[in-house]
Amino acid sequence: MSVVLEPGKAGKLTGTTPWFTGDVAAERVPEKYRLDRAFVPKARYLDPEFLQLELDKLFTRTWLMACRLEELAGVGSYVEYEIGAHSILIVRESKDSVQAYFNACRHRGTRLAKDRGRVGSIICPFHGWRWNLDGSIRLVLDREEFVPRSDDDLGLVKVRTETWAGFVFINMDPNAVPLLEYLDPIPRIFEPFHYENMRIRWQKGIILPCNWKTALDGFLEAYHVAGTHPQLFRLDKSNDNLLSMKELENRVWSPTTTYERHAHYSSLGQKKSETTEDNATKDPLKRTTEGQIDPREAFALSVQYIFDDMGGLENERSWRAAEQLKTTDLPEGMTPGDLFMQLYQDLVISEGYAWQDISPQQWSEAGTAWNVFPNTILLPNQGSSFMYRARPNGSDPDSCLFEIFALDQVAIADYDKKHQHTPQIFEDYHDAALGQVFNQDMANAKEVTVGMHSPSFDGHRLSEAQEMTIYNHHRVADRFIWADRDA
Ligand code: FES
Ligand SMILES: [Fe+2]
Predict the structure, then answer these.
(1) 310 alpha carbon, closest ligand
(2) CB-based contact 303:339 (threshold 8 Å)
(3) Which fold has domain 64-175?
């Protein structure tokens, strides 16, 4: 049920039809916004009018990842989530429940709470009306002076709130499909990664000078890796000179797979081995190296670089397992990757962490990075994950808030421990200490935007193999924006 485009050949959307099968008839979409085969017109990124359509019809009708449950640790904890003109308050209503409300006083509209914090009841800062955590009205000062109104009329207006794997999603559309149905097939495929046992280790938000989709697009494909992150193909990570033609032969091939709403890419190894069985599935045990040094060391360095430079997706336990790998004898018939996983497993179990059993088939299905439609990306890994989220910044289509979350599994004994982290926001990515890889990605955001504004440029020409994640986003967005139907 999930794959609508050429089932069985997902990710290879070839042929002249059916680009719009099950979606929106092309005629319904104004020409300047109309998708064509693997072509996305630039007006969908640059026009203020299109941003307004997204704010009115897309973000108001889709499930949006608003926060993690660990951010609402105690009863009365709240997080404010802003999107377009909407401010939404997500509140820990009781030990077992969270509920989101439109963050506007029923008296004269005042925003009730900002950022994050913890309260006993929700109190308007203007005239002091009060609400219980379940949104029911608790106090109207001098209520007898008002026209009699029902408690219902004075209660906070609820926003649909559902959770999955420690993520709290909200949806402003009362008629939306349930969250788990909307997320399909993500909950099934992500099950072995046990996100419910992860917590946010750090969260950095960056104001980027690009459209919110441009920020995400840069993480929805790995086709750019050879061009943008050349050091990843070298043992010497300080060498970020352009890859030579010879080095380019070792580039990684990362085909995309599209589903009814969501999409992912999988980095599968070298493209030149595309037809070999070796390349049939994503294999986390394979990493690109030059093959000139001890393969154990090469493997270990690539794990350690991800943690040292990016600060996530790996963790300090996998870093130490990699360190052990460098000097552990490689048993006959074992790859460095196999040995690494064994060392990593022994280490985490001995330190009180759960080990996730993830079969090769589950790794393969999970791929590398997922677009959780519309504005979140998840990269699953053993014990750690990155999550990215982007939102428009005001009414400027060329500005967004892009956030990076590093999630790590916590020790079994800490599952119920109160969690704390302080989100940071930076106006300039240079101040965010993001490391070499993210800085390279961040630099692209502005360059893409400047180039897209050139009158000579009309739209994205996407790879049908490696960039259909991007196309898929637009295809699905059309259903919300033009079809007025529940997607
Ligand atoms: S505006 Fe909130 S109590 Fe008056
Ligand atoms: Fe990148």
Answers:
(1) 2
(2) no
(3) Rieske Iron-sulfur Protein (2.102.10)
Within a 13 Å sphere around the CA of 297, how many CA atoms are in the beta-carbon half?
A: 9
End-to-end CA distance of the chain: 13
pLDDT in tens, 66-82: 999 999 999 999 999 99
CA 224, CA 211: separation in Å to the nearest integer?
18
Q: What tens digit of pLDDT does each residue of 363-394 get?
A: 999 999 999 999 999 999 999 999 999 999 99
Element (H, E) at 345: helix 336-350
Fold assignment, 1-18+26-61+197-222+253-282+367-487: Naphthalene 1,2-dioxygenase Alpha Subunit; Chain A, domain 1 (3.90.380)
- How far from 425 is each of 175, 203, 208, 382, 432, CA to CA, in Å? 34, 9, 11, 28, 8
The DSSP code sequence of 394-461 is TTEEEEEEEEEEEEEE--GGGTTSPP----EEESSGGGG--HHHHHHHHHHHHHHHHHHTSTT--EEE
Cβ contacts of 145 within 8 Å, gap of 6 or more: none
Amino acid, single-letter form, for residue 11:
G
* Angle subtended by helix axes 336-350 and 295-305, to nearest 10: 50
Q: How far apart are CA 404 and CA 394, in angstroms?
A: 20
Q: Where are the domains of the chain?
A: 1-18+26-61+197-222+253-282+367-487, 64-175
What is the CA(125)–ligand 1 centre distance, in A?
7
Structure tokens, 136:
């029911």
Question: Average pLDDT, stretch 171-194?
Answer: 95
Q: Give me the phi and psi of 406, to 5 degrees please.
A: -100, 120
Ligand 1-lining residues (CB < 6 angstroms): 105, 107-108, 110, 124, 126-129
- Structure tokens that stand for 132 in this block: 């219980």
Most ligand 1 atoms within 8 A of CB, residue of 101, 103, 124 to mutate: 124
